[in-house]
Amino acid sequence: MTIDPALLSLYPTTTTVSPDGLLTVGGVSLTSLADTFGTPVQVVDEVALRTRAREFADGLARRRSNSNVAFASKSFPCTAVYRVMAEEGLHIDVAGAGELVTAVKAGVRPDRIVLHGNAKTDAELALAVDTGVGTIVVDNWDDITRLESLPGARQSVLLRVIPGVDAPTMAAIATGHHGSKFGLPLGEARRAIAHMQASSRFEVSGIHLHIGSQILSVDAFAEAVDAVAGLGRFDVYDVGGGLGVRYQRNDKAPSIDEYLNAVTAAASAHLPDDAELWIEPGRSLVAQAAVTLYRVTTVKPGDPTFVAVDGGIADNLEASTYVGTRMDATLADRPGGDDRVELVGRQCESGDLFASDLPLADPRIGDVVAMPMTGAYSYTLLSNYNGALRPPIVFVRDGVATLVVRRETYDELNARDVV
Ligand SMILES: Cc1ncc(COP(=O)(O)O)c(C=O)c1O
């Protein structure tokens, strides 16, 4: 039984398909993982995760020796993932106290943490300073006032600026345009830099920008570097994340090499030669490392035929009307097929649609559906919509499956209710 090579290329790098059509990831068959851990379950290919981290780190270092990759942990804020990224030598960016606490718990060195947030509280900044976070990204004047009022040694900061670049992506995840809620416009940024440079509280290491997520053209990244170059000479320029990925077999996305070529060329053209170039990939680092397994619960023949599974936007909000990403999938023991179906979830919204006109091989109740490209923002955006239990995460490597997050229980569903 064959699998469309374009579909196969969406799965983690260690994925194989046996002659009789059985998919394996990390040397473990996907149907056996569904049997052992139940469904829905998120399966992470550890080798794929590590390989991708190295591609970014080595690729950037090769092009610009003065460089640094931070994992944008908002894309997969799970202890085991933090640990892998830290082991691979990446710095970690966190947005808020929750991600900061998780990163530290996972063993990330505080001096390798970059703290973000457009609405940091007194408590979050105090925690960051107490923890010894290496870099705080100042977003606004209130961050400046709060940091000035906190005791402590000089704090290394980057200032987040709005480059005024319209990234070609969905409005909900664009962040670098004029009027964005993140950072300060260029003119105000100059004043904020001058203010911080005059204060003994701040070590102004440089500039930060991030123009958005799921960006499928590299030109906007280069444009943003150009836009901030006139702010002065700094030690560090952190140009954020944002590289987009393919979700369906016919999608196209720039490769890591194309992305790195674009940002390093822009840095060479516009930034001081000795400045450090930092990037913060999230989605493009983790998306392809995970496959989510579901079981078919309902097959409703008709025009169209609906195949419903035991998960949905509760475990993958990207596939909702909010982001509108459409996914791809196949059956874990019968890839291919030519039954055209609407693959839908179980949450009570018509926008809970994973894929339209998806070819499957005679799907039946109980079949395991293997959905690739679910590593980014699925765990981040988990909810208990319709009382869904948050699914487990299983790492697979060299034929061994390890549970790293267990499934939520019904008791936990209302454990915080006090009345
Ligand atoms: C400041 C910052 N850096 C990095 C990222 C990672 O972006 P992506 O997952 O698109 O690479 C984000 C997410 O939008 C972000 O807000």
What does this structure look like?
The longest helix has 18 residues, at 46-63. The chain is α/β, with parallel strands linked by helices and 419 residues long. Helix 3 runs parallel beside helix 10 and helix 9 (219-228) runs parallel beside helix 10. The strands form 3 sheets. Strands 4, 14, 15, 16, 17, 18, 19, 20 and 21 form a 9-stranded mixed β-sheet that branches. An 8-stranded parallel beta barrel has the order 5-6-7-8-9-11-12-13, surrounded by 5 helices. The chain is built from 12 helices and 21 strands. 27% of the residues lie in helices and 24% in strands. The model has no long low-confidence stretch (mean pLDDT 96). The site of pyridoxal-5'-phosphate has 16 residues, from helix 11.
Keywords:
419 residues; alpha/beta; 2 domains; 9-stranded mixed sheet; 8-stranded parallel beta barrel; binds pyridoxal-5'-phosphate
Largest sheet: 9 strands, mixed
CATH T-level topology of the largest domain: TIM Barrel
CATH architecture of the largest domain: Alpha-Beta Barrel
Distance between the termini: 55 Å
Number of strands: 21
Structural class: alpha/beta
What's the quick description here?
With 419 residues, the protein is α/β, with parallel strands linked by helices.
Mind sketching the topology for me?
Layout (H helix, E strand, L loop, with lengths): L4 H4 L7 E2 L5 E3 L2 E2 H8 L3 E5 H18 L3 E6 L6 H9 L3 E5 L1 H9 L7 E4 L5 H10 L3 E4 L2 H9 L5 E8 L21 E2 H12 L4 E7 L10 H10 L7 E3 L17 H15 L5 E4 L3 H4 L3 E11 L4 E5 L20 E2 L7 E6 L8 E8 L7 E4 L21 E5 L2 E6 L4 H4 L6
Parallel strand pairs: 4-20, 5-6, 5-13, 6-7, 7-8, 8-9, 9-10, 9-11, 11-12, 12-13, 15-17
Antiparallel strand pairs: 1-2, 2-3, 4-14, 14-15, 14-19, 16-19, 17-18, 20-21
The structure holds pyridoxal-5'-phosphate.
Pyridoxal-5'-phosphate binds next to helix 11.
